[in-house]
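Q: How would the C-alpha cells look for this protein?
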Amino acid sequence: MRRISLRDLAAHKVRLILTVLAVVLGTAFIAGSLMFTASLQKTFDALTESTTKGVDAVVTADSPHSPLPLELGPELAGNPDVSSLNNAAETQVVVARETGDSDGGTETLQTGGAPAFVMSWYPEEDVVGPEWSIVDGDAPTGPDQVAVNTSAAESQDLSIGDELIVVDPNGRHTVTISGTYDIDVDGGGFVGLAMEEPSFIDTFTDGETTTLFSLEASDGVTEEQLTASLEAQLRELEASGVVDAGTYEVKTGAEYGEEQGEMINEQLSFVNYFLIAFGLIALVVGTFIIANTFSMIVAQRTREFALLRSLGVSSRQITGSVVLEAVVVGIIGSALGAAAGFGLANGIFAVINATGAGLPDSGVQVTAASLAVPLVLGLIVTVMSAWAPARRAGAIRPVEAMRSGDLASTSLRGRTVAGVVLTVVGIAAALASVFLDADTGPRASLVGVGALAVIIGTFLFSPALSRPVVRGIGSVIGLPFGPVGRLASTNSGRNPRRTATTAFALTLGVALVACIGMLGASMKASLSEMIGESVTADYTLTGPTGGAFPVPMAAMDDVREADGVGEAAGFGYVPVTVGEVPDGPEAEYAGSGVIDGNPEVTGGLEVVDGDLSLDRPGVIADATVAEEKGWTVGETLPLNVSLPDAPAREVGGVELLGTYEPHEILGETLVSWSALEPIATSIGAGNSMSIFSIFVNGDGSVSDQTLRTNLEDATSDYIVVQVLTSEEFAGEQAVLIDQMLNVLYALLALAVIVAVLGIINTLALNVIERRQEIGMLRAVGTLRGQVRGMIVLEAVQIALYGAVVGVLMGLGLGWAFLKVLSGEGIGVTSVPTGLVVTMVVGSAVVGVIAAAGPAVKAARTRPLEAIAE
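A: Here is the predicted structure in C-alpha cell form.
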C-alpha cells in the first residue's frame, strides 16, 4: 500500500500542489516569525554586548524617577579601585536641519525607528565602554559644538560645519558639527551627537542628577572586586547624605548588559507570539482546505479503493494509505514552509533596513525550534485534517467498484442539530456577557467562549444553511446569464458539505477582519466623541505621532505671548501618585496629570466642590475618586513617587483645592505645575516634567485662522509642534489606531489568501470530478465561454456565501466584545460600513480570480474524450 500511495501522489501531483501551498503559507509564517525573532534577539544581544564592552561596573539609578546626584560622580571616581568614570546618561532628541529654502524651511533627520540622542563626549583615553575616536575634524568644545557618528554622517549626508537644530523636552538648540567619530558599537541607524561633558550637563540635563555612571576598574581589580568596593563606598556615602538608600544599583558590566538584553527579549517575545498567532490562524483556515481536498480525492478514487478492497486489502490499510499521502503532503509543505520562512525573515530585515534603521548584519538565525515547530505543526494539522476523509476511504465496500461518486451523501440532520445547538449556546453566552454585572475580564472570557461555540456551531450547520442560501445567491447573480446562471446555481447546491467547507475558510478570515474592523471603528468613534466632549479649546498643540514626543517647555511662553491668545494651559504627566500608596501587591501606581495654567481651558470641566483654577500650588481630583478615598477639599494629601519595581517614596504634600466631574482627558488627579516645581529634581523630572499638549483659547481679537497662523509662527522654531483643532486632534490620535489596524489587516490577509487557495483547489478538483458532465454539456452545444461563465459563477456564489456569513458572525461577536468593553472607554459602537461593503464586493472579485484557472481548464474539455472516460 505504501508503494500505491506514493505512486498515486506521483501520478496526481497537480491536484495536491495547492494543498501543499496552503501548508506552506501557514508554516512559512510560523518559521519566519521564529527565525526573525531569533535573529533580532542575536542582533540586540550583540548590540548590548558591544555597548557594554570595556565597562567593568555601572552605578545606575533604581528607576528613572529616583535619579543619582551628579556630585556622586567625583566621589566614585576617587575610589582607588576605579580607573575611569563616565556619566553615561543620554537625552533623546529630535534632530533637524534647515533646507536652505527662501521660506526658512527645515527637515527632520529620519532614523527609521533608531534613536537620536545627545551624550557626553570624553577624550579617547578617558572613555569607559566602546572605543571611539575622532576620524575627521575636531572634538566638540562648548555648548554650540557636537561630534556625530560617521554612520549617521554618511546616511544623513552631514558634513563638518553643518548646523543642526536639536529639540529636546526643554526647547530648541542650534549646534555645529565639529567632527565625526567612529565608535565600536555593533549597530547603525542611530544619530549620536556627542557634546563636551560640562556643556551637555548644562544644556540637556537638569544640571543636578543623572541616571547612569559607567566605570572602568584599576589594573589588577576584577569586576566583582570593583562592584564590592563600590557597594561599600556607597553605604558610607549614604551615611553622609550624598546618596539616598534604595535609589541606586551596582552591577558588573556583564550583568548590566544581560539585564538590558533580557528586557529587549521580553519585548520581542510579544512580537513572536503575535506573529505566530497569525500563522496559526492561517493553518486553521488551511485545515478546511486540506480536509476538503482529501474528501474530494477520496470521492474520485471510490472505484480504485473498492477494487483494492475486493482484492483483499483491509479497511485499515486503505485508511493508512490516505494518511500516508497526508504525511507526505505535510512533510513537503512544512519543509517548503521552513525554507519560505527563511526568505520571509530576510525580506522583513530588508524592509526594516530600507527605512534607515541600520540593524547590525547578524544574518537570519535558523534555530532548531524554527525548523522543528513548523514541521511538527504542519504535519499534525495535515494529518488531522485528512483523518476523516481517510476513515471514509477505509469504509468503502468492494461493491462500490460498480459505481463512482461522492460518498459524502449521508444525512446532515445530526450535524445540523449539533451545530444549531452550539450556535445558540454561543449566542446565549455572548448575550449573557453583555448583561452580566461583573468585571471586564470574566465577561470578555465569556464572550470568547461564546465566540468559539458560534464558530464551531456555524461550521457544523453551514452545509444545511448553504443549500438554500447559495442557491438564493446564485439565482440573483445568475439571473442575467440565463440557463448558465441557473445551472451554476444548481451545481453549487449539489454538494453542500463541500460548498460549506470551502466557503468556511473564507468565512473565518472575513469574520476576523469584520470583528477587528468594528473594534477599530468603534475605538475611533469613541475617541472622537470623548475628545469632542472633553476638549473645547480653540486649538491644541502637540508633539509628533499623537503626542509621543513632548512639546518643548520653552514653547509655553512663546504661545502665551502670541497675538490673539487669551488663555493657554500646558498639560503633562508625572509618575506621582496623590494620596497614600499601600505597600505590597495591592499598591496602585496611578500617576497624575500636571498642568501649567487654568485647567478649564481644556473645556468640559464641571466643578463639584471647591475651586478648580489651580492658580496656586495644589491638586484637584475626580469627585468620584475623592469620595472613594475619603478626601475632602482643603485636606493636605501626600505626594508619592511610586512605580511597580520600587517601593513608594513620599516626596511632599499638596492641598486638595477642588473636585470635578469625571473628565476623560484630565484623568483622576491633576496637580498644579507650581506644586511640583520645588520637588522636580527629587522625582527625576527636573529635565523631563514635560508638556504633551497645550490647550489654547483665543481672546476674540483675531479670527480663528489668524490665531492658528500666529500659533504656528510662534512655535515654528520647535519643529515638532503641531497646531490642531479638536477634530484634527482626535484624528491625530486615530492615526495610531489606523496604523495598528493596518498591521492586523495585513496579517489577516494571509488567512484570506489561504481561503482563496481553497476555492481554487476545490474548483480545480471539481472540474476533474465533473469532467464527464462538462463533456456532455459541450456535446449538446454549450459554448466554451458558457462553461467558463458557469465555473466563475459557482466560485462567486461560494465566495459571497462565505463573506456574508463571515460578516454577520464578525459583526455579531464584535458587538458583544464592544458592549463588554464599554466600561473601558469604548462607549460608541460603530459598524465599518465601508469595510463591510468592500469585503462583500471583494469576495465576488476573489471568486472571479479563483475561478480563472479552473474555468479555462473546464472550457478546454474535449467532449468525446470526457464522455468516453
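The first strand starts at residue 57 and ends at 61.

DSSP finds 24 helices and 26 strands in the chain.

Upvote if useful.
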